[in-house]
Structures are given as C-alpha cells and as structure tokens.
Specification:
elongated; mainly alpha
Length: 106
C-alpha cells in the first residue's frame, strides 16, 4: 500500500510540474489554460487520492473528498470562463495555432 501511495504522490507532482512547464512554454492564453487546467486537475486529484489512502476513512478524508469534487467542478468551469472572456475581449490565437473554429461565436 505504501508503494501505491508513493506512486500517486509522484504522479501528482509530475502532472503539476508539467502544468507549470506548459504555462511557461505555450504560446497563447488558450493553450496555457488547457495545459494548466488538465494537468493540475489530474495532479491534484492524484495527490488527494494518495492522502485518502494514507489516512483511511476519517473526517479529514471526507473534507479532502469534498475539495476534490470542488476542484473537478470549478477547474473546467473557470478555465472555460477565462477562455471565453479572452475571446470576447479580442485576444487572438498565436501564429503557431492552425485554426480558430470559434472566431464568430464569441
């Protein structure tokens, strides 16, 4: 069980680190949002699962589960709101992007 918990911590840290690297390397706000939201959500949930397995069933783990559910709901919604706001304010894609399917649907 200890190896599984350690593995989940390592996976969580890896995905959180990849989210940071993605924010630094991606060319525009839309790519940065996608990278940070997906990677950090997966990394956080892996870490929360490790915490739940490590501590067993208690009031603390119930709070961690509530936080995980909150993150699952708010991260995609917040990312969508920021991307939609950026699109409505005219922030364009990078030259490296291949297409903009939502150009007229802001």
């Amino acid at each position: 069980m200890k190896m599984l918990i350690d593995f989940l911590y390592i996976v969580g840290m890896f995905f959180c680190f990849c989210g940071v690297v993605g924010v630094l390397r991606m060319p525009d706000v839309y790519c940065r949002l996608q990278t940070s939201t997906k990677n950090v959500t997966l990394g956080s949930l892996s870490i929360y699962l490790a915490i739940i397995l490590e501590n067993g069933l208690s009031s603390f783990t119930v709070k961690v589960i509530i936080i995980a559910i909150f993150i699952l709901i708010t991260n995609p919604v917040g990312s969508h709101a920021i991307a939609r706001g950026a699109l409505r304010n005219g922030i364009g894609l990078s030259e490296k992007s291949c297409c903009n399917d939502y150009r007229g649907n802001a």
